[in-house]
Design brief:
heterodimer, A: about 350 residues, mainly alpha, Methane Monooxygenase Hydroxylase, Chain G, domain 1, 17 helices, about 0% strand, elongated, B: about 130 residues, alpha+beta, Alpha-Beta Plaits, 4-stranded antiparallel β-sheet, 6 strands, about 30% helix
Amino acid sequence: MRRRRRLREKTEELGRAAAIEAELTAIDPADQEDPMPITDDRLRLIFTCCHPALPMDARVALTLRTLGGLTTPEIARAFLVPEPTLAQRLVRAKRKIRAARIPYRVPPVDVLPERLDGVLRVLYLVYNEGYAASSGDALIRFELTGEAIRLARTLVTLLPDEPEAIGLLALMLLHDARRDARTGVGGELILLEDQDRSRWDRARIGEGVALVGQALQAGRPGPYQLQAAIAAVHDAAASPDDTDWRRIVGLYDALARIDASPVVALNRAVAVAMADGPSPGLAIMDGLLAGGALDDYPYLHAARADLLRRLGRWTESSVAYQRALTLTGNASERAFLERRIAEMDRAKRRTDGRAAERRPID
Amino acid sequence: MQYALLIYGEEPGSDVPDDAMAAEMEAYNAFTRHIAERGAYKGGEALQPTAMATTVRVRDGRTLTTDGPFAETKEALGGLYIVEAADLDEAIGYAAMIPGATHGSIEVRPIVDFSAEIAQASAGTPSARSS
């Protein structure tokens, strides 16, 4: 009797393990031409792969491996991790899914919001890695943004009443619309204000704007919806001077109320500088710098450097650009910062030169 | 499947008022009743403070006894529950109901099922794939 019970338990256990293993490995890396079948199974799998009991790096890898069309070597290259390390990460995650019995189902409504936040964060991270990549090769990064958008679309189709999921999809589309205009022929970074806006993808912008509108109608604004709304204001402007900076500051105010992070405060400061001039923006940034939380954040130093440049404070600007340069590993961003440092140093020599010429006369 | 819910938290000092202590005890009793009614309760104990602990090691056949806990940490193990749950989410749900979760932390650890382990070992484990 006892042996029979054990045998039954063993069979059940092995059956469950095999079923999960099959889910995690057998899902065909998507045929790009053939839209993946959207089923409840896929939704369940997203929640399993993004379960908060798994380490974040494993969630990202597992999501890309089982739901995205990426292979293990591709994911390893995208995140600059040795292939065996990534394979090990996946094996450990699958082992934990089995051993701790992480469920394969959509969470019940009482925990759905927090679990959905976790899923959205994974997709956002995948998108950002592809879009803003601090490192890695261009082709793979392009695939990451594509995967993130495709997975967000799936999520929105499956959970059509979640405004933040719609907001995230909109945010990705509105940023992705500028991709071709964002780098020059040599791969160098081109800032928003210098981009050739005729190269923006109008169809993507149209889709993104419509989605933000749809999401905000639910009356439950969240960080992704607000960031998408900000991107939409940028995308709606025919030129940098046409940008409705007041509106952007207002949206950042709303965002800062939900998310009091220093990065949001920095972005708000940039918008304030555009709406009210460099000095008030610089005052906010100096406060952030004194706060210390963003000391290792290259974009704070680069943004500060830019305002100092606009104020003609060349020496301070050059110092801030140099600080940003020591903190960034991305080649096109480094090239941009080096160009700016050279410009500041030339500007400084010109002013010094003029001062020197004047001095004997004075 | 069984999970251990390990309750970690700062150890209460001697200055905790009696009524607060009683309220905490009642909250624990309510939780125990709740999971017992659902048939999920498989055991549970509260531990005396780490000041009462003794740590024992045997090295080279000699028993070394030291005072105090194995590790001096701010948050110490104060008690535990063993629960039966269908999956990790159900166990997490129970962990979140433990009164100590609001001021300390609950570690959820799956318990090894030796009957399944033995059965699997005798059947030969499926080889791990590295994809």
